[in-house]
Input
Amino acid sequence: MNLTKNFSEDGNFILSIEIDKKIVTTANGLITFENADLHHIETIEEYRNNGYAKLILNELITELEIRKIKNLFLEVNVNNINAIKLYKNALFEQISIRKKYYNDTFDALIMRKKINEVILAVESSCDETSVSIMENGKIISNVVSSQIDIHKLYGGVVPEIASRNHIFNCLDCFKEALTVAQKETSDIDYVAVTNGPGLIGSLLVGITAANAFAYANKIPLIPINHLIGHIYATFLEHKIDFPLVALLVSGGHTELIYMESHYKFKLIGKTLDDAVGEAYDKVAKVLNLPYPGGPEIDKLSLTGSDIYHFPRVMLEKDSFNFSFSGLKSSVINLIRKFETNSTPFKKEDIARSFQESVVEVLVKKTVKCAELFNTKNIIVSGGVACNKRLREAMRSLDEYNVFIPSPKFCTDNAAMIASACFYMRDKLSRTIKDNIITPFTNGEETYI
Ligand code: KG4
Ligand code: ZN
Output
């Protein structure tokens, strides 16, 4: 098979696929300034239903991306079901209809595909203000302004202080993200923003900024669930096959989710009490370690040993739910006992013993879940996925394809929100209502 492409200076283009010295599929059209029109795409009869039209269309789209074209337009007979299916799968959308266009009988659909799609995403659900820009699925800027140093003074996130600092930082994050990406507001096709779960005051700042930016520039605004964002962080750097099992471990959530395909989620298990990150942070506090405790325990445990062998809480045999408050209490009680009796102990050993218990439970339950659904694909995401021991234990599962985002995409960031938006563009008509959104706070499971 031979695919040739010819883009001439006057804007005309033609692509063709040749098999056994025979031209079997052709596509031709015209580029005018930032837009392109696809005039014709056809496969000769005996070669149809072999995916050649799809192949040539994908090749054309790639070429148009390189040439920085913004839109590809076409018209198609309403009765041509196969062609319409091909275009819809390639994310063309219907923009209008021409009545009786073909021989005064059949209507024509006018369809458009945005070629160079730019998403601006905003995340402000907790103590990170972040704005990111994604072009055609690739992150071109990801500004994260963390407030950790401020909240460290209080041993945890203070919601009111977090909201105020989002206000101070938000607009500068927008400006910086646009500058780094070398984009103007007019280049943005979608605005995506985390609308929950999270701290209500924090969410409101990001949402208000995103609402204003989208409204003023007449750009569609897409609400994104924060947990879906964490899962989609994994897709920023990896090509992952479905079905898959996702372990989501963050400061507020611990969940096992089965995904049959993009945006098809099934909640399989969740924590019945503390989230893993929360347990890390609380144990760290009792050990007098700074906030956030997760990275501190991770570091200390490198030089400690699992001498206390804390319980591994699996709950009843077939459960996929988690419970970490019992483990947390065992660890805290032991520390208190040592302190009361002035028994010397090494923080490193406590950290290591706690971490081993957590990691063993997370790994075993995730593998059991993957076995249940008979899949080899596992993703691990959320802030706790930064944990070195967890990463190592998951990656050593030789029989599985384990995908974990780079640490910078595990903790809160707007790149993951852009990624979640990118994979739901084909569902947009369902999502965009009046282009003004509000945060929701009621429920972690709303996305299932
Ligand atoms: O995803 P994230 O940034 O925010 C939430 O959505 O909650 O997660 C923050 C959590 C904190 O509890 C923090 O202690 C934990 O992730 N964390 C870690 C590590 N790095 C961050 N936990 C264990 N080991 C780490 N290296
Ligand atoms: Zn998060």
About this structure: The pocket of zinc ion (ligand 2) is lined by residues 226, 230, 250, 383, 412 (CB under 6 Å). The CA atoms of residues 220 and 235 lie 23 Å apart.
